[in-house]
Design brief:
The complex is a heterodimer. Chain A is an all-alpha fold. Chain A folds into two domains: 175 residues, no CATH class; 39 residues, no CATH class. Chain A is globular, with a radius of gyration of 18 Å. Chain B is of the alpha/beta class. In chain B, strands 1, 2, 3, 8, 9, 10, 11 and 22 form an eight-stranded mixed sheet that branches. In chain B, 22% of the residues lie in helices and 17% in strands. The chains are: A mainly alpha, B alpha/beta. At the A-B interface, helix 8, helix 9 and helix 10 of A face helix 2, helix 5, helix 8 and helix 9 of B. The complex binds flavin-adenine dinucleotide. Flavin-adenine dinucleotide (FAD) binds next to strand 9 and helix 11 of chain B.
C-alpha cells in the first residue's frame, strides 16, 4: 500500500481513502478473505439485492481470494458490473436478470439452496456445468452467460479503477502490471527489469479529462 | 429542403488517412477544396491511456457513424449471415482511422504489383489460384515510388531503409524495392524483447528489420517524439507523436488557406449530370440537408463506405449505382489474411508492458515471392511481425496454453506467473481476390437513416489457408529459436469487417473488370476519383495505409496536372 500512496500524488476522496484503508487492512489478514468474508457491503445501483448476491458469489469463484492474494471480490468486479449495466453495458442488463435467475434456479434444483449460500466447491460444480453449456434454463445457453460474466469479471478486475473495478489496484498488482506511465524509458523496456508499480488512474492525470467519457458511446 | 451551397473546385468525402493526404497536394496547388467529414476534431485530451475505453469499448471516436452501419458478413452466397460484429474498427473523426491505427507504414514490395504475370512467368498459369480474378496493377512500384516518398516526408515516418537506389542495407528490409532516399527519421527504439527476437531471426539466417512507423522517433516538424507509453492502438497519441493526418497533412493543407473542413457532415449521395459526370454531393449536418456542388468529387470514406456510397447513388445515368454500369462496384473484394497468428509462452518475463504495436521487428524472408514456391502448394506468403505492447485486461485474458483451466485458483496462479511471459504475432499473408468474394448492399439490414448497410460475401480459399499454415510454421520456428516453451496456432477466422479491406472499386486499365483507371478516376464518371485501399487489387504482405496514401497523392497530382480536362 505504501507504493500506491507514494505514487498517487493527487487528492483522494475521503470515501476512497476509507475504502483503501479497509482493503489495506484486510490484505494484512488474508485469512479473512480465504474464509469467504465479503468486502464492505456495496450499495448496488442496477442489480437487485438477490441478483447482486448471486453475482458476487460467482465473481468470487472466477477469481478467488486465495494464497495468491485478493481476487475479484476485493477488486469489486461485481460493483463494476453493476455500474456498467446501468451505463455502457446496459444492453446486457436483461441477459443478467435472466442469467442470474437461471443460476439460482439451477442451484436450487441441483443443490437445494441459493447459489450464494452454497459451499465454494458446489458453486464451482455449477459454474463448470454452465461453462460446458450442457445446462438447461439459459437462453440461448449457459455457456454464453458464463462467458459474458467471465468477460465482465476480467474487465472489472483489471480495468482502470475509474470504472469502479480493480479497486486499490489489486488486479494490476496480481499480474504485475506496473501501471500507467506517461513517459516510458528504454530501461523500462529492457529484459530483466521490473518497473516500480505506479498506482494511478488515467484520469488522475490532469491532461486527460473525464468529460470526454460523457460524450462517448 | 436542401440548402444549395456555392460551388467549390474539389470535394473530398471523408477526411481520414487517405482523404487527409490528398488534401495537401491539391490545396498546395491552389485548388479550393471542401472536405466533408462525418466526425469532428479530437484533441489530445481525448486520448487517455485507458484500455477499457480504447480496446474493449472502442469509444475514442468523435461521432457514431461507423458503429451504426457495421457491414454484415456471410461466407458465401448460400450461407446465412454470420453474427454481426458489435464494434466497427474504423474511426469517425478528422484524421479518420489514422488517429488510432498502429501506424505501421510499409511500402509494398515489387512483386505485389505484378502477382499475375510473375506467377505465370515463374511457375505457370496453373498456379494462379482457382477462381481468382487477380490482375497485375496497371503500373509497377517504380511508378509509385515518388508518391511513397512525398507521403513519408509529409506525414513523418520512422524507419530503416533497406534499399536506397539499389544499394542494399541489411539493417533494413533487403527485399524492399529501391527507394530514392532514407526515411525522414530513424526507426523506433528496440526493446529487450524485440532484440531477443531479432537475434533469434539472425541465428536462423533470416533478415529481421525494425518496421517503418507513422510515429516520430525524434521530434519532427514541431511535433514531439514518441514517449512509448503504449496506449495508441485504438487510442490516439496524447503528445502528437503519431503521424496521423490530423496532425500532419491536414493542418499543412489548412495553412494554404484553400482547405475548408466541414465536420459532422454525413454524405449520403453523389449526384450526376445527364452526361454522366458528377456535379456534387448531398450531406446531412445537424438535421439539415446541404448540396455541395463541385468540379471534382474524391470519395475517401474507406472501402465499405466507398462501395456503399456508390451503390446508393443511383441515377438515370447509373441505374445500378454510380460508376457501376459494368457491374464492377463491390467486386474483387479481399480482406487481408491477418488471422491465423501464433501465440508463444516464454519461461520468463518479457517486460512488454509498455510500448506500441509499431515498435517491433519484421521478417520478410517468407513474404511475397521472396522464396521459391516451385514445390509448394500456394502462391505468396507473409510478413512476420512481433512487437511490444501489453495491457492488463488483455494480459489477463491470455491463452492458457493447455496448462491451466480458464478460471478459479489454478487459473489465477497461472496468470500471476505468466501474464508477462506470453506474446502474440501479427502475420499478414497474401490474399487473392476471387469471383465469389464481393461487397453489395444488404437486402434488409439498414442504418438509422434507412439506407441498407454493406454486405460482405467472402471466405478464405485454399491458397490463403495454405499460406497461413506455412507462415504459422515459420512463426513457430522463430518463437522456438527465441526460447518459447509453448506455442499455439490461432484460427484463420472469417472475412468479416476488417481494417485491411481492399477492392470493391479496383484500379486497372480494363473498364470491364475495374471501376477506376490507372489514375484513380472512374472509367464511367470521369470527374469522380476514388481514394483508399478499395482501388487496390492485391494485398501484398504489408499494411495497406501508406500505399493507399501514396496512391491518393498520385491521384491528386494527376488531377492537378489535368485539371481542365477532368473537372466539370
Ligand atoms: C486498430 C487499427 C490499427 C491499424 N493499424 C494499421 C497499421 O499499422 N498500418 C496500416 O497501414 N493500417 C492500419 N490500420 C488500417 C488503417 O487505419 C486504414 O487503412 C486507413 O485508416 C484507411 O484510410 P481511409 O482514409 O480509407 O479510411 P479512414 O481513415 O477510416 O477515413 C475515412 C473517413 O471518412 C469518414 N466518412 C465515412 N463515411 C462518410 C460519409 N458518408 N460522409 C462523410 N465522411 C465519412 C470517416 O468519418 C473517416 O474519418 C489500422 C486500423 C485499425 C482500426
Amino acid at each position: 500500500m505504501t507504493a500506491e500512496n507514494e505514487a498517487t500524488g493527487h487528492n483522494v476522496s475521503r470515501r476512497e481513502l476509507l475504502k483503501r484503508v479497509i482493503l489495506g487492512a484486510a490484505t494484512v489478514v488474508p485469512a479473512s478473505f480465504v474464509t469467504g468474508a465479503t468486502s464492505a457491503q456495496e450499495s448496488f445501483e442496477t442489480l437487485t439485492s438477490a441478483e447482486a448476491a448471486t453475482l458476487e458469489a460467482i465473481v468470487a469463484r472466477l477469481i478467488p481470494t486465495d494464497e495468491n492474494g485478493p481476487g475479484a471480490t476485493e477488486a469489486r468486479a461485481a460493483y463494476y458490473i453493476d455500474r456498467a449495466l446501468g451505463d455502457a453495458l446496459a444492453p446486457s442488463r436483461e441477459a443478467y436478470s435472466a442469467g442470474l435467475a437461471a443460476v439460482d434456479a439451477l442451484a436450487r434444483r441441483t443443490k437445494n439452496a441459493a447459489f450464494a449460500r452454497l459451499a465454494p466447491q458446489e458453486q464451482d460444480d455449477i459454474l463448470r456445468e454452465m461453462e460446458s453449456g450442457n445446462t438447461e434454463g439459459f437462453t440461448p445457453n449457459s455457456s454464453t452467460f458464463f462467458e459474458l460474466v467471465r468477460t465482465h469479471t476480467l474487465e472489472g478486475t483489471f480495468c482502470d479503477p475509474h470504472y469502479g473495478g480493480n479497486a486499490s489496484f489489486v488486479g494490476w498488482d496480481l499480474i504485475g502490471y506496473p501501471g500507467i506511465r506517461i513517459v516510458v524509458t528504454a530501461d523500462h523496456q529492457r529484459l530483466g527489469q521490473s518497473p516500480r508499480p505506479l498506482h494511478r488512474s488515467a484520469y488522475d492525470f490532469e491532461r486527460f479529462v473525464k468529460e470526454v467519457l460523457r460524450r462517448d458511446r | 429542403m436542401t440548402v444549395r451551397l456555392e460551388k467549390t473546385d474539389v470535394v473530398i468525402v471523408g477526411l481520414g488517412a487517405v482523404g487527409g493526404v490528398a488534401a495537401l497536394p491539391l490545396t498546395t496547388a491552389g485548388l479550393e477544396v471542401t472536405a466533408l467529414e462525418a466526425g469532428t476534431w479530437l484533441s489530445r485530451a481525448d486520448f487517455a491511456p485507458d484500455e477499457l475505453r480504447n480496446n474493449v469499448r472502442g469509444w475514442p471516436r468523435s461521432a457514431q457513424k461507423a458503429n451504426k452501419e457495421i457491414p454484415v458478413h456471410r461466407p458465401n452466397a448460400s450461407a446465412p449471415d454470420s453474427p454481426r460484429q458489435s464494434v466497427h474498427p474504423m474511426m469517425n473523426a478528422v484524421g479518420g482511422t489514422s488517429l488510432h491505427y498502429w501506424g505501421l507504414s510499409f511500402r509494398l514490395n515489387p512483386w505485389d504489383f505484378k502477382v499475375a504475370s510473375e506467377t505465370r512467368r515463374r511457375y505457370g498459369a496453373s498456379r494462379i489460384p482457382k477462381g481468382s480474378t487477380v490482375e497485375d496493377w496497371p503500373f509497377d512500384l517504380a511508378e509509385l515510388e515518388p508518391y511513397y516518398d512525398h507521403t513519408e516526408y509529409a506525414l513523418g515516418i520512422s524507419g530503416q531503409a533497406g534499399n536506397i537506389r539499389g544499394k542494399i542495407d541489411a539493417r533494413g528490409n533487403i527485399f524492399e524495392g529501391p527507394r530514392q532516399r532514407a526515411y525522414p527519421m530513424p526507426p523506433l527504439r528496440g526493446t529487450g524483447f524485440t532484440d531477443l527476437m531479432a537475434s533469434a531471426a539472425r541465428r536462423l539466417d533470416w533478415h529481421p528489420f525494425p518496421g517503418p512507423a507513422a510515429v516520430n522517433s525524434e521530434p519532427y516538424e514541431n511535433r514531439a517524439a514518441c514517449v512509448y507509453h503504449g496506449f495508441c492502438s485504438r487510442g490516439g497519441c496524447h503528445v502528437g507523436a503519431k503521424s496521423s493526418t490530423a496532425v500532419s497533412t491536414i493542418p499543412k493543407a489548412q495553412a494554404t488557406g484553400h482547405l475548408n473542413v466541414v465536420t459532422e457532415a454525413h454524405v449520403i449521395e453523389i449526384s450526376v449530370n445527364d452526361d454522366g459526370g458528377v456535379n456534387g454531393v448531398t450531406y446531412l449536418k445537424n438535421g439539415e440537408s446541404y448540396f455541395q456542388p463541385a468540379g471534382v468529387v474524391l470519395l475517401a470514406t474507406y472501402t465499405y463506405e466507398n462501395v456503399r456510397t456508390l451503390l446508393l447513388s443511383k441515377s438515370k445515368a447509373y441505374p445500378n449505382g454510380l460508376s457501376n454500369n459494368h457491374g464492377q462496384v463491390g467486386k474483387h473484394y479481399l480482406s487481408h489474411n491477418t488471422g491465423a497468428g501464433v501465440l508463444a509462452l516464454f519461461p520468463s518475463s518479457l517486460n512488454t508492458w509498455y510500448g506500441l504495436p509499431a515498435q517491433g521487428i519484421a521478417v520478410d524472408n517468407w513474404a511475397d515471392d521472396n522464396f521459391d514456391h516451385a514445390d509448394l502448394d500456394f502462391i505468396g506468403g507473409g510478413n512476420l511481425w512481433v512487437y511490444t505492447e501489453r495491457h492488463p485486461i488483455a494480459a489477463a485474458k491470455m491463452n492458457t496454453f493447455g496448462r491451466a483451466p480458464r478460471w478459479g485458483s489454478r487459473w489465477k496462479a497461472f496468470i500471476k506467473e505468466n501474464a508477462d511471459r506470453w506474446t502474440g504475432s501479427y502475420l499478414q499473408k497474401t490474399t487473392f481476390p476471387y469471383e465469389e468474394n464481393y461487397l453489395d448492399l444488404h437486402p434488409t439490414v439498414q442504418d438509422p437513416l434507412g439506407f441498407p448497410v454493406c454486405r460482405i460475401t467472402a471466405d478464405f480459399k485454399d491458397n490463403e489457408k495454405r499460406a497461413a499454415a506455412f507462415i504459422q510454421d515459420k512463426m513457430v520456428q522463430w518463437f522456438k529459436e527465441a526460447g518459447a516453451i509453448e506455442t499455439v496456432r490461432q484460427s484463420i477466422g472469417t472475412m468479416g469487417p476488417t481494417t485491411h479491406a481492399y477492392g470493391g472499386t479496383r484500379m486497372g486499365d480494363n473498364a470491364d473488370t475495374n471501376v477506376v483507371d490507372r489514375w484513380g478516376f472512374s472509367h464511367e464518371a470521369p470527374n469522380l476519383g476514388i481514394l483508399g485501399a478499395s482501388v487496390m487489387g492485391t494485398s501484398g504482405a504489408h499494411n495497406p495505409t501508406l500505399t493507399a496514401q501514396a496512391l491518393a497523392w498520385r491521384t491528386a497530382a494527376h488531377l492537378i496536372g489535368n485539371w481542365r480536362t477532368i473537372s466539370s
